[in-house]
Fold these 3 entries.
Entry 1:
Amino acid sequence: MKNHVYQNGRLIQTNKKFSALKQKQKEWITNELRQRYISAINHPHVKLNPKKRDQILDEVYDLIEGKEIWIPYGEVKRHYFSKIPSFIRKNKKMMQEEIKGES
């Protein structure tokens, strides 16, 4: 039990991976990150500055804790940073579809 601690009367796994979450939880976290990231982008093909990016991560992690999903902050951060290029591509694709729809 070296990777477990008691916290607020619950046994918590300290080395839990993002992949160990339930599919619904993973999708919810990814959707929250995507929606907030895309809404914060001013220019469609540009990454956010680190301060704004970290602010979004902190907001979503607070929501995760509010839903009582336990996952280490570092795991959520790693997943978030790996998904940023995907978020940008998805936003770019949506912008192109909007332009085609207006034409």
Entry 2:
Amino acid sequence: MSGPIMVPVRRPLGDTGMATHPLALGGSTFGWTLGRNEAFDVLDRFAGVGGDLVDTADSYAAGRSECILGSWMRDRNTRDRMRVMTKVGRHPDHRGLAPVDIRAAVDDSLQRLGTDRIDVLFFHGDDPEVPLEESLGEVDALITAGKVLAIGAADFSPERLIEARVLAANGLPRFELLTTRYNLMERKPFEGATELVAHAQGLAVLPYFALANGFLGGQVRRRADVRHDARGHRVAKHLGRRGHRVLAAVDEIAFAHGVQPASIALAWLLAKPTVVAPVASATRPDQVEALIAAASVELHRSELVELDRASA
């Protein structure tokens, strides 16, 4: 393992009352590009170096991601030390955020995960067809039943987040977390109104695609490096003058700190006042240390300025 020896760092997960390591392992690859055994290897390494926050969704690989995570927790007896985040709203059997769909989706997720509770339940995108108070009312019942401990929003607009806070002021459950696409290569959708609302509401922000589909890990520098699959196509769009400028800045700072480029890209996110834990995936166990190491990297102000400038 390269870089400094790491001591597990913990941060409050917003106002949920939970504290976790400030890096969430993304489970979107489980059951998609990673089979059961490969996913177990990644999860073993993640837990072994202090990771305890895992992000999945009922729609990832049509539920297989939750099944793999659940079987790993059961096999390794790790449920009580892990914090599990999942999302509902996009599974083909329970699309949208109608109360009946939320209820059924949560029960199905609990079964796949092999647990009696979901630590954080996200609404997986907005559902303009359903009044938000109806969706939150159903979650209120799930919280009362002990099936859900806290809730978050995935890719909600600033306007809907404000509406949700008004409803919370009237007694409905409050969004405590927000997950949204945000990284050095994709800044504009979050920076601005969404960031202002998140800050004003004290939302714990968990950026997904934190490494821009792996591009910020620095393994792809030329078109010839691009894999011919869906993930490779996403990475390829970042190749270009701006992408190379960002990688050059990340490389220089990573060398100065003795860590991998991925650690610097994640440390930049962790320096943002609203960000609590970036969400990043690993396809091999040996990639996990670079993710976890980000929490131990303190970027200097000049380095943050350089990264901001390179990615502008």
Entry 3:
Amino acid sequence: MKKKMTARLLRTTLALLSLGLFGVLKASTISCRNEEGEAVDWFVFYKLPKRQDKETGETGLEYLYLDSTIRSWRRSEQLMNTTESALGRTLQQLYEAYASKGNSTAYLIYNDGVPTSVNYDRKYGHTKGLLLWNRIQGFWLIHSIPRFPPIPQEGYDYPSTGRRNGQTGICVTFKYNQYEAIDSQLLICNPNVYSCSIPATFHRDLVHMPQLCARSSSSKIPGRHLATLQSSRGQNFLHFAKSDSFLDDIFAAWMAQRLKTHLLTETWQRKRQELPSNCSLPYHVYNIKAIKISRQSYFSSYQDHAKWCISQKGTKNRWTCIGDLNRSPYQAFRSGGFICTQNRHIYQAFQRLVLYYEDCD
């Protein structure tokens, strides 16, 4: 009887220790999160534009969602401005880290359109994103939403200025050993950092992000650099970063030629501010002109602030890239970048959105 009680007590003690250890590991594991709050290796979203037709009842907050656990776009039941959205769930980790006031977690938030300002600061890169990490891992969110997100002490919200046009973004979970490469890429992108905290424990490994946080960087900035990154679960990515000294269209002059594929590009096609499709180099770049959501639903590139491109259908190298820059004469003078993957589910999801594109003259 005594032996049975001792064995039962031992099992109970081990179970409690296991639960405690699991709680510590879960608390320390920063990751992209799905709408259930579960960790995912990556996710992609496509915020749909607000329609002019009021009968649809759409608010400009609806979005398509895809992550590493599903195979195709899912129209989310959540809205972009709710804390139950994928962005809301993921950024909740930022608010928890900020509230804890510990020195084991770092974050960096940047946007050329700062939430509290009506102006855009053109001396910085045309870049928008957020990083949150500790010495185990973290995530990098790259998106196209101006004035997003609010500073951590204000909590989660979605800007009204982000409703009218379409927007895209990608979140990738990275182990800490990838952050040194990310650090160098951010230097080239020259982001407008408006909220950050990088404790001294990270300064030995990461040189540029603490300087960007303090707005005191004196490092020489390369014209461009291509980095190979790997997500926490082994998904390979390439990140193209160009500075404002690389005076050319990032798509035609670099990405298409390096990826060895014709590219279909979807960027904000503002009238008289777009570059025409380009077939002057071995690998061509074509402007997408309309996006289809379903057989009955589509929208024009003029309504789309998203920034992405894919390999032309039928091409051997099937790439998808999501990032910061538009195909515009003015964007050739701006710094920014794109993160690219050959994940077939991401490629197929974006490829199905293409209604038609502009050929070369």
